Amino acid sequence: MRQTIATTKPTILIIFGATGDLAIRKLLPAVFHLFQKNLLPPKFKIIAWSRRPFSNADYHKFLKNALKGKKISLRPSRSEANTVPRPLGASFESKTFTKFLRYISYHQGLFDIADSYKKLKKTLVKIDQHEWKECSNKLFHLAVPSDFYEEILKNISHFGLAISCSDGAGWTRILIEKPFGKDTATAEKLDEFLGKLFREEQIFRIDHYLAKEALQNITLFRFSNLLFEPIWNNKYIEKVEIKLFESLDIQGRGNFYDNIGALRDVGQNHILRMLALIAMENPKSPDVKSVWQERTKILHALQPMLSADVAKYAMRGQYKGYRREANIQPNSTTETYFKIKTFINNKRWNGVPFYLESGKAMKEKKSEIIVHLKKSISFFCPVDQTCDYQNIITFKIQPEEGISVRFWAKKTGLTSHMEAKNLSFSYHSDEKIKQTVDDYERVLFDCIRGDQTFFTGTEEVKASWEFITPIIAAWQKIPLYTYKKGSNGPYAADI
Ligand code: BG6
């Protein structure tokens, strides 16, 4: 089926942090891909805000060079740090890319200077009133470190940029990157602040994992195949493992990472999103409120971690050599690895352990969810065998995206011996893989069309912090294990 464009209404995307690596590595390539696929509105512009004294032509040149990986050396972006970058070369050299550049104008500005916002307002009014003669949609993307959020948001609101230019047309929306706060208290404060300036339907909190094809497939797969739903509970499932392993280390992101650590960086968000999707109930309707509600219910049902249990059920590690990386405190106790055993206290999941595990500098890059079914009892078990027949369903998020089911089949021959076989599908073995969308393409597309389903809601963020914050607090009192780079994490991770 052909995809329809996000909206036919004129739209302006304003990117704060337009020379930053998120904008260069993820955002602008994603907008370009939408442009190539004709999925952007016919009247579309990008205003690229940064503090460098660039003209439009300078910025276009900068962008071209950056995308070709020439002049500036790019470290992997936050969300791409551990993936093989797309081949950026060819399409950014093309005539289509030159055409795309015409949509981008540069805006030199400083986040704390009133004039920068006044100038931006003038530009926006000029486009609407003189060029397009129509009230356009405005999408503000904060592709900047979270320390700048408050300043920028306050100014967007103060200078009336968040007010729509007409009653019936021209929405304004805000796209916000994680980390959304540092703990329950700071997240609540940021949310309260945002809530004063914008309505919930204007706020799009990004968790790029939710935009991954393989993650979106989890609920669709679960609720569309009757085969799985009846066994999706504590009667049949023994345990669930959720892993986000990266083979790369912190890749020069010391300043950011040392204040954050693995649990805040990927646990509070990506891993808990995976947990919610694998465990949630079928929403009563596909509308965003019902989906958010079901995802959030799971987070609320997580067994709170008592500080006395943290040493037993939540362990953390740091790879050897971390403290010698640039911008890391020499005695830093920031974790680069964690493994948590938790339970979901509801009828469906009572008693089933969920293992949440993530690490940097691990042996391999792999994100997956492994659902272990209980062992079956077979009366056909040959006397000389132990028959631990167990089905395992693996949701592969990356690098390969797909699902595999391990099942048991009779070995050919005169005995009743069984062997494990895999029933699987992978998007990568499918020719249509060329049509799958990148995380940020989905993020932008959904935001422009106003679909918040694959963004995080305020209650969901709050519930995630409520589970994580006590663990971080209690960790200060328990040992930090070390592990070798390229290994499977600390030996002590057997919880
Ligand atoms: C980001 C984290 O949110 O996710 C990074 O800040 C991490 O540290 C990245 O590398 C992982 O995302 P992906 O899509 O590469 O698995």
Question: What would a concise description of this structure say?
Answer:
It contains 13 helices and 15 strands.
Strands, helices and their partners?
Blueprint: E1 11-16, H1 21-36, E2 44-50, H2 56-68, H3 95-101, E3 104-108, H4 114-131, E4 137-142, H5 149-158, E5 172-176, H6 184-197, E6 203-205, H7 213-224, E7 237-245, H8 254-257, H9 261-279, H10 288-301, H11 307-313, E8 314-319, E9 337-343, E10 353-359, E11 366-373, E12 392-398, E13 402-410, E14 418-426, H12 439-449, H13 458-475, E15 481-483
Parallel strand pairs: 1-2, 1-4, 2-3, 4-5, 5-6, 7-10, 8-15
Antiparallel strand pairs: 7-11, 8-9, 9-10, 11-12, 12-13, 13-14
The structure holds 6-O-phosphono-beta-D-glucopyranose.
